[in-house]
Amino acid sequence: MDKGPLILNVKLVIGISACCMGAHVRYNSKGWDMLMNLGREKSEFVWCPVCPEVFSGMGVPRDPIHISGESGKSVWQGEGKIKSRSGKELTENLKTGCQVSLDILKRTGAKAYIYMDGSPTCGVYRTTLKNKRTGKPPGVFGALLHDEGYFLIPATDLQSPVKWWDWKRRLLAFLWLQDAVIINKRELYEVWYKYKFLCQELDEKWAREKGRELAALKNEVDRDYIENFRNEILELLRKPSTLNKIVNRLWKHYSHYRKVTGETIEGISGQDSFRNATTAARELNKIERASEEKGIVFGTSPVILRGNKNR
Ligand code: SF4
After folding, report:
1. Using 50, 70 and 90 to split pLDDT, how confident is the model at 133?
2. How far is the C-alpha of 240 from the C-alpha of 170, rounded, in Å?
3. What is the pLDDT, as a whole number, of residue 311?
4. Ligand 1 centroid – CA 60 distance (Å)
5. Residue 129 and residue 259 in one domain
6. Residues with Cβ within 8 Å of residue 241, at least 6 apart in sequence
7. Which of the listed residues 102, 126, 158 is the one where a domain comes to its end?
8. Residue 308 confidence (pLDDT) above 60
């Protein structure tokens, strides 16, 4: 079995709420460039900005809209409505804008989307930015993307280097596994060998049980078992880790790296050193790169992106 990392050889397309990529398309003509925080890493991806509210025919500036009903999901079920502050109903307009945006994302091949939380359209966990209220989540576009199986990343997490690192490694693992050809027990074991450390970090109890279950398999596995295994891991990969867990694993896997190579990496501090979000991300990126060069899996990041410019 190849002991190196799995390779995702694509130029990855990521959809993004246009207002988070610097476009001044919010109802009040504002926007933020959240990708600025990624620095040079930004050029590793192809970005596809969409604004469902603008694509629905509402201009900039415009009256803010809100969900009248339970949630954005209820709008698709025909129960909820979308209304502007002045009371104008815009339900069908916004549904069209969301469908147009989804169509654009699909045509670019994007399977992940960075969303602006707090919007009645793009929000996933909040549809308002007022105080600590959550509004009526998910938003109308957020609900549509969720149903379509998109890997959803909150734009605010791009501001923390370690949170972005965590989203990126889970995204790569998600996309590789989504399309992986697994047809027998041997291939299933090979995938588990590469994914188990990340799964253990995200949900130790589940991963230990899954490991025991796989070890006890006697017969060849059928298609349903394989698809169930795949879907369980894909769901787990949507779940963020924590700084504490990430730092613990960083040291564990760095110890493995030193044991296998007999080398240390410059710039990695001691086990008990204090690491904040920035220093942890810097060290993680260094270990990831060094592991790739040595052909060793860095357990917390099983999949490496090699951008294919020809897509
Ligand atoms: S949150 Fe979505 S709908 Fe609202 S301005 Fe941003 S991109 Fe447009």
Report:
1. confident
2. 8
3. 47
4. 11
5. no
6. 166, 201, 202
7. 158
8. no
Assess whether 165 and 138 both reside in one domain.
no
182 domain-assigned: yes
62 and 12 in a single domain? The answer is yes
Give the pocket of ligand 1 (CB within 6 Å): 17-19, 25-26, 51-53, 116, 119, 121-122
| CA proximity to 298, closest of 307, 308, 282, 287 | 287
Has residue 212 been placed in a domain? yes
**Atom 5 of ligand 1: nearest residue by CA position:** 26
Is residue 258 a contact partner of residue 210, using CB atoms and an 8 Å limit? no
237 and 152 inside one domain? no
Q: What is the pLDDT of residues 182-191, one digit of tens each?
A: 999 999 999 9
CA of 31 to the centre of ligand 1 (A): 9
| Residue 214 shares a structural domain with residue 73 | no
Q: pTM for this one?
A: 0.94
Q: Measured in angstroms, how far is the CA atom of residue 127 from the centroid of ligand 1?
A: 11
CA distances from 64 to 119, 134, 145, 220, 275 (A): 10, 16, 22, 57, 41
Helix, strand or coil, per DSSP, at residue 137: coil
Give the residue from 112, 133, 158 where a domain finishes: 158
Query: What is the number of the ligand 1 atom nearest to the C-alpha of 19?
Result: 6
Q: In Å, how far from its chain's centre is CA 59? A: 30
Within a domain: 1: no
Asked whether residue 16 is assigned to any structural domain, the reply reads yes
Domain that holds residue 165: 161-311
- Convert the pLDDT of each residue in 71-107 to its tens digit: 999 999 999 999 999 999 999 999 999 999 999 999 9
